[in-house]
Amino acid sequence: MPVTKFSHPDPYTYQTGFDSHHESEAVEGALPIGQNSPQKAPYGLYAEKLSGTAFTAPRHENKQTWVYRILPAAAHENFIEEEADSYHTSMTTETHKLHHIPNQLRWNPFDLDENADWVHGLHLIAGSGDPTLKQGLGILMYAAGKDMGKEAFYSADGDFLIVPQHGVLDIQTELGRILLRPNEICVIPRGVRYRVTLPDGPVRGYICELYQGHYQLPELGPIGSNCLANARDFQAPVAAFDDEEESEYKLYSKFNNTLFSARQNHTPFDVVAWHGNYYPFKYDLGRFNTIGSISFDHPDPSIFTVLTGPSDHVGTAIADFVIFPPRWLVAENTFRPPWYHRNTMSEFMGLIAGDYDAKVGGGFQPAGASLHNVMSAHGPDSGAFEGASNAELKPQKVGDGSLAFMFESCLMVGVSEWGLKKCQKVQPEYNEHSWKPLKRHFVNPNKKA
Questions:
Q1: Going by C-beta distance under 8 Å and a sequence separation of 6 or more, which residues neighbour residue 114?
Q2: How many CB atoms lie within 10 A of CB 211?
Q3: Among 87, 95, 170, 185, which is most exposed with the fewest C-beta within 10 angstroms?
């Protein structure tokens, strides 16, 4: 996969491994030895536990991190709900405010917004479920052109899976710093506080917020022990902290899809050391090891799953994150693009760069999106069908310079008012342009001339 060139290298250091128990200290000796919460933590720090699961969750599911910080996270004023007109986000997923429709939808590229920072550049496109019950997911776009100031943000609703399409995010989290660029993804777990600055100017991208559980690697089954995303390629930050005697900060909380804020007189980024398995991480999508058919037929897109947010039913996801990177096609006597399809799952697709091989008509563009909801029929547009049906089937590289992705969910997804109307990006003739031109090729052998 081509490596995107940036104006500066990644200046930060990372620990490697997915769901590993990591530990890091920015000051030698700041991590207690043999005890999580000694009577007096080293250097006068406060011990604080960050729990991402119930205390009694099974050991293989339990997510928690101990942090050693200058002041506890609880040291802030009361949260106050932000006035709706003070931020132009639309974050509610209340059932009566979402549009559940069977139509196939496609959006033109979403706009950049040079006047918004990270918090005020979040827009809900679609969602399902209820964060108060820890059920479901939300799909958002972000577009920002300004740094956050002395501010921090966290979501109490779920884990943010961030997929950049344009621009670089410098993410300062409580547990360390992450530089995030297109062709990479980042997961910020529920409750972790962070701020976003923009070293290369305006940014734009996609987010899948998982209200239920946490993202994990998919099981590989008959594939074996390797391929797809390998655990060693995930990167977690190392401890880094700000030492400010007194500094006024504003803390934003996304709580039941409503924005609250509170004041505090110290930095949120004062964690000197930490250890545990609940932390933000990033992954370079260029390291994904694709697999596919080397005989015939087109496999299910689940072979491209990077991360999954499972439901209580084995093999059925609240959210799968699937990518379609550059890859070779060699299957014989096979219609190689994705086949025509009706799915019990909802499929939201985005395009980071290039062209998607199943949509050649030009309507699916980088920074745009599409949604094929539960049982909404979809598949290649007419041009892709005609081309693939008549192509010479020799080994072929597809997707060079391209990267498409999909958020797939077992839930019926409702579209927000912003996503359907206010953003003014919905293509009204998506269906007509994609599938109406399909021609009848059937020759009935029993029909008399």
A1: 145, 146, 202
A2: 26
A3: 95
Q: Identify whether 266 is a catalytic site residue.
A: no
> Could you tell me the strand order of the sheet in which 22-25 lies?
22-25, 271-276, 64-69, 46-51
This prediction has a pTM of 0.96
347 annotated binding-site participant: yes
Please report, in angstroms and rounded to a whole number, the separation of the first and last CA atoms in the chain: 53
> What is the CATH code of the structural domain delimited by 287-434?
2.60.120.10
pLDDT digits (tens, 9 = 90+) for 55-65: 999 999 999 99
Q: Identify the CA nearest to 107 among candidates 361, 368, 347.
A: 368
Choose among 157, 156, 121: nearest CA to 138. 157
The length of the chain in residues reads 449
Answer yes or no: is 356 a known binding residue. Answer: yes
Q: Please name which of 103, 57, 106 lies closest in space to residue 426, comparing C-alpha atoms.
A: 106
> Which of 50-54, 134-138, 443-447 shows the lowest mean pLDDT across its residues?
443-447
Catalytic residue among 298, 313, 372, 433: 298
Q: Where are the domains of the chain?
A: 287-434
